[in-house]
Amino acid sequence: MLRNICRYQRQFGQVIWPFSFPQGQHVPSLLTHLQKAKYASDTTERKKFYENVSISQGEGGLFEINLDKRKLKTPGGKLFTVPNEALAIAVATEWDVQKDTLKFYTMHLTTLCNTALDNPTQRTKERMISAVLKFLETDTICYRVEEPPGLVELQGNEWDPVMNWIEQRYNVVIGSSSSIMGPQIPEETKETFQQHLNSYNLWSLTGLEYVITQLKSLVLSFGLIDRHLSVEQAVVLSRLEEEYQIQRWGNVEWAHDYDMYELQARTAAGAMFVHLSSESTAVKRKILQD
Predict the structure, then answer these.
(1) Global pTM?
(2) Which one of 20, 205, 234, 267 is CB 3.0 to 4.6 Å from 41, fit for a cystine?
(3) What residue ranges carry the coiled-coil annotation (predicted)?
């Protein structure tokens, strides 16, 4: 199990790079074909090759993940380091709970750390903020249907309270529209969100963009990160039309449940990553036991 999780050792012998990004995970859209090949490997499982997982504090106060006595590395070949102990423990736990077979597609925090560390497209903070703001122009809850009446009513009842919350919370105007062009977002609103996003570091922006990609909504993502919505609420609201159709016409139960749980897992991991990568205080040192 996860032993000696907070033993601070600086030398653990050889390093190891256990995997590339699994298929279906968040990959920046500007990757070259070679980068996509590395970050979207179809090898999503591998036989477990270690027994113990630990963390150690290395140079500059960064935390490292150790599999037995080997240091973890990123797909790009960098030493896998995270900025604080809380995030290190969370990532180490992902590795510790793996059984005989490593299921990389379940290790969302590890994947997000790799993205932040390697930054394969070399995106700056400004470019990431610009990319995040563009989601506002196609936000799921900004687009409203005109029929059927039942769905129109459902969208108003479920989405309007969230829209009212974010407009009051950030003192902005967003609005909604049934036009394919969507609502006209005022420049003042974009400037307000840009200033807010500037308070995030590069790691947190990586997590936020991941959450937005899952929910297809900046509004719902802010609601989740600000703890106005739970993960379950945010996911259901992001799939409102699909849920409406399922209630009306039925569904393949196992497939629906699987998709729902997978989306919840990815969204929860992204939200956790945002909060943990913003964490500035050290977690109390302790050993995690069975």
Answers:
(1) 0.81
(2) 20
(3) none
> Between 21 and 48, where is the model more confident?
48
- How many percent of the chain have pLDDT more than 90? 67
Give the CA dihedral 141, 147, 153, 157, nearest 10 degrees.
Answer: 0
Check if CATH label 3.90.550.10 holds for domain 15-118.
no
Determine contact, residues 74/118, Cβ cutoff 8 Å.
yes
Do residues 206 and 120 make contact, with C-beta atoms less than 8 angstroms apart? no
First to last CA, the chain: 7
How are beta strands 70-72 and 15-16 bridged, if at all? parallel
DSSP string over 76-145: TS-B-EESSHHHHHHHHHHHHT--SEEEGGG-HHHHHHHHHHH-TT---HHHHHHHHHHGGGG-GGGB--
Q: Where are the domains of the chain?
A: 15-118, 125-277
* Cis amide bond preceding 148, omega within 30: yes
Higher pLDDT among residues 284 and 229, named by residue: 229
Q: Is 250 left (phi over 0), alpha (psi -120 to 50) or beta?
A: left
Q: Is 284 exposed, middle or buried (0-12, 13-18, 19+ CB in 10 A)?
A: exposed
CB 271 within 8 A of CB 231: yes
Q: What pLDDT sits at residue 245?
A: 85
CATH superfamily of 125-277: ATP12 ATPase (1.10.3580.10)
Strand 45-47 and strand 15-16: the pairing is unpaired
